[in-house]
Amino acid sequence: GWYGFVAGTGLSAPVDAIVDTFTRADAASLGTTETGQPWTSTNWAILNNQAMPTVGDVTTRALVDTTRSQDIRVSCKPTSAVQSVRLCARVTLDDATYYRLVWESLTTATSYIQRNNGSGFFTVGTKFALGAVVGDRIGFSVTFPGGVATINAYRNDTEVYSATDVAPPPAATYAGFIAITAHAVDDFRVDYL
Predict the structure, then answer these.
(1) Which residues make Cβ contacts (< 8 Å) with residue 29, sequence separation at least 6?
(2) Average pLDDT of 107-125?
(3) What is the C-alpha separation between 91 and 59, in angstroms, rounded?
(4) Over the Cα atoms of the chain, what is R_g?
(5) What is the pLDDT of residues 71-111, one digit of tens each?
(6) DSSP 58-114
(7) pTM for this structure?
């Protein structure tokens, strides 16, 4: 497990999740999660207790080091039914390789999992509907039972889609989100499975 340090208290108990609800003063950067991990981000700010991209394109990213390349679930609460923010896991800091959960609409069959192995994006499985509304928690997990990548999509902790991938991106420990347009992210978390 991973341990946090709070000045004057020594080592704390193992952390089972990385959490950031962004409930802090407006700021020009994301700073540090509520569980102590620094954000590595470009073009993200805190605005009205949400993470908000200051520009919207594929280079607008916010990542935390999970210390794990597998057995994690990345999730957030969307602030718009039509989003262009992608949750991502197994991300390299140069954005060359990773998995991402894409949702163009929370309710229709326009969500999908993609893999980038450095040579472009490939859809893992088929498109599916998250069946979610604004305020629901959505996310995806990456596990490797038997050495094959299994990616599951969730709505409010209920699995809504599952696919396997025999050509996963290389192991990397960063997770977070990437903005395509200026939609905010709320209540981000990474759970260790």
Answers:
(1) 39, 41, 44, 45, 46
(2) 87
(3) 13
(4) 16
(5) 999 999 888 766 667 899 998 888 788 999 988 777 778 88
(6) TTEEEEEE-S-SSSEEEEEEESSSS--EEEEEEE-TTSSEEEEEEES-SSSS-EEEE
(7) 0.85
